[in-house]
Write a structure and sequence with these properties.
It is a single chain. The protein has 184 residues and is mainly beta. The chain has helices spanning 2-7, 73-80, and strands at residues 14-18, 24-31, 35-41, 44-50, 58-64, 68-69, 92-102, 107-116, 119-134, 140-151, 166-183. The longest helix has 8 residues, at 73-80.
């Protein structure tokens, strides 16, 4: 599908490493049905492979669940505990893509397997290709934005007694910058 690469300005095939310093993995959940509590994960890593045919590209990522922060240490301790993420038993969540479908030249759907709390489910990310460029050091960089919504209940995250105060739906947003590790 060489015509697809021609419409993606500056497209570079290769293996990319997610730059955690310039990326963000965040989420929000409704609290009591009236407000949004936001949080993010500070520790994550991943690899993106942009194939010659963009639709054959892939992504694999690992998020350290213990790095969750909602800017409230009491709440964070609860979220890390057995009622929610249970980080001692499940220190990581992972995502591995399985398929990519084009929506436009810059918008894609990425299907993949998300493993959270020991449960693996198929999720679909809406991915925006932000572009390819050069970093300050002259090396290639790429940017991606992605979003999805999951049901925490489907992953066995009940929330215990506090679960009734927090919506089942969790919106996840990713802002990813990656550096080229190997081209081609």
């Amino acid at each position: 599908m060489s015509t697809q690469t021609e419409v993606i300005d500056g497209y570079v095939a290769g293996t990319w490493t997610i730059d955690a310093v310039h990326s963000d993995v965040s989420f929000y959940v409704r609290h009591l049905g009236v407000s949004k509590v936001r949080g993010h994960f500070a520790a994550f890593e991943g690899t993106i492979v942009t194939a010659e045919d963009p639709l054959e590209s892939s992504v694999n990522a690992v998020i350290k669940t213990g790095s969750v922060s909602t800017n409230n240490e009491t709440r964070d301790a609860h979220v890390r505990g057995a009622d929610f993420l249970d980080v001692e038993a499940h220190p990581e969540m992972t995502f591995a893509s399985t398929a990519i479908r084009p929506q436009t030249s810059e918008l894609f759907e990425v299907d993949g397997e998300l493993t959270l709390h020991g449960v693996t489910k198929t999720v679909t990310l809406t991915l925006e290709l932000n572009g390819f460029g050069k970093g300050f050091d002259g090396n290639p960089v790429a940017g991606f934005s992605a979003a999805t919504e999951i049901s925490r209940g489907e992953f066995g995250v009940t929330g215990g007694a506090a679960g009734a105060a927090v919506s089942d739906k969790i919106k996840i947003a990713l802002e990813i910058e990656a550096g080229l590790a190997t081209q081609g």
